[in-house]
Amino acid sequence: MYSLRPLFWLLLAVAAVQASVLSLQSPRFTILSSSAEQLRSEPLSVTQKPAPLTLGASDALKLTFQVLDKDEGKGVQPHQTFLRFYDEISGEEGIQPVRVTSGGKAKFELNMARPPASIPPTSAGIPLKVELIIGSFVHSPLKVELFELFLPESHPAPQHPDEASFHPLPPIHHTFRPEQKLPPRIISAVSAVLVLAPWVVLVGLWGHIRPSVPYLLSPSILPFIVTLGAFETLLVWYWVDLKLGQVLLYGGILSVFAALAGRQALATKGDLRVGRK
User: Residue ranges of the Ribophorin II C-terminal domain (predicted)?
Assistant: First the structure.
């Protein structure tokens, strides 16, 4: 199926090229004091900016202009019109909408006695760049740099009671314990001998007594031998992975079965076949 998307974009591009151009007629600014005394009043030029404007703490700035369709020479009402106050040092900006009548006439007033909250914070000696931006669906957009504006220095923002909670805290420095030191080899060897000594004694007694295998595997003796092997396995497991609390818990449970199995083994009557030399 033939796609209409390329044709749509082509028609959109043609419409953009043929869109009417907007222009400003009779742009003018006026600076008034708190007593309505006119301090400065000049027309504005689209191609050349005037000398920077300066407003006092109680002065007011009035801006008037008319938006025209350049081709037809008639006033039009664009869809969006606003002033952009931009601080090149801090990068902050503020947007103020401008109302435009159906005939294209616009009037804007900035009273420093009640400045809008959207004006960015100002520093002493640093001007704001003021731009006029106009957008329309049927006209090409218009952007004009009007003038530079010096405003009174902003007061510091009031401190919030919880402001200190959001300040960065000093970094936390962890002090790690030194690495574990291994004991001398002689101490490790002596400890190993002490641990293995009971097994040496047990093997020696086992060879002297020589109990019969059927007797050791009898139902009354085998559980006790299994519990003893379980104790040894628990100690090895503790050395490898378990913690002391787990060993005490498992050992306490295992000791109950070992005591019962040992009592049963001692109560069993049987004969040991003792070998003779």
Answer: 176-268
